[in-house]
Amino acid sequence: MEKQPKTTIPCKVDVASETGRLRAVLLRRPGVEIERMTPLNAANALYSDILDKPTVDAEYNNFCGVLERWTKVYYVKDILQELLRDKAVRSYLVNESLRHDGRRRTAGMSPADYALAEQFMDLSDEQLVQVLIEGYENPTWDGTSANRYLLHPLYNLLFTRDASSTVYGRVLINSMSFEVRERETLLYDSIFRHFFGVETLNVSEWNPEARTEGGDVQIASPDLLCIGQGIRTNAKGIDYLAQTFARERDHFNILVQELPLKPESFIHLDMVFTFLGQHRCMVFEPLLKKDGIFADKDTTLITIDNGKISYRRVDNMLSGLHSLGWDIEPVFCGGNDPWVQLREQWHSGANFFALGDDKVMGYRRNTHTVDALDKAGYAVLNAEDIISGKTDMNDYERFVAVFPGSELPRAGGGARCMTMPIWRE
Known about the structure:
Structural class: alpha/beta
Distance between the termini: 38 Å
Number of helices: 13
Radius of gyration: 21 Å
Strand order of the largest sheet: 8-9-10-13-14
């Protein structure tokens, strides 16, 4: 296959904060894969319900439309389609996808898989991208049995945050906690190594039992990571990060917040805590008060000093940040009513994404959270007005861009979950 010139130009890869001016981001526009769920397989796909795609499409158009008005947006599909022009990358993704999928756990491949790999290799670049993401149906499927797919769909790929994480000048290829998401890392590893040409860190190669996911990894500053420890990121994964930076930095800190293992709305740190700017954060209040489901959840500050790693408990995330010299105040998800806080946290009310310092975006549906931001001095801007050109985000020192969300929140994530920053100033 003749290699063609790239039509998309890679940018630098560098993220040293959660709130620096966003210069490039990676997205996956939801595709047919989200329609390949039924009430029978939705739980295995890590969804609590099945989604209406036309509504998802309309909501996502508002979401990505805001980002396209602000920054350079890369789309997973476009990059993969370019990478597949390279026969070596193409062969790797085909063979490893088949080997990793479902029951195919051995080093070798069955004759049927070899035949399927050859079939995939003959597809056009666009067709192969669709197969790798949306899955490949078994042509002999009888309409009722469980073996509908010879290659399963990547139902969660719209959440570009999780399988890889830009950590300063490198990309962490995460070790996913659930088998249904493992194959996502193959795509991102290829994207960042072969398209962006950046060094990757692979936690599973260090220890197969170590787990990290991007929703738990927040790059607070050049010398501080905030990490959630729960059902998706475990202690071994955090140990990997601590040991990595202990080898490389004289001084470094990791602030760890323990999370409940259920319900599913608490899967990642960014579902209860996100940075809005250098001096403000969005918080689910029980996390700070250590009330209810957070009553027995520890907050630990890991300090690295000339290769020595030490641990001490702190009261909560804010006290830990204050002890490191941060002047930061909370805005509460759901406002001040505990009942409303629970309702809005469930639909990603704390999951904000910063476009810059005090310039954020999130779901419009969480009205009490948006009201709390309004009272804190954030201008409330509608996505539709931004996209049409009626409103210019650059005219505002502090704002929250709100976009509609009825179906997207039911997928289990918000604006931060659906974004993978590549470059921030």
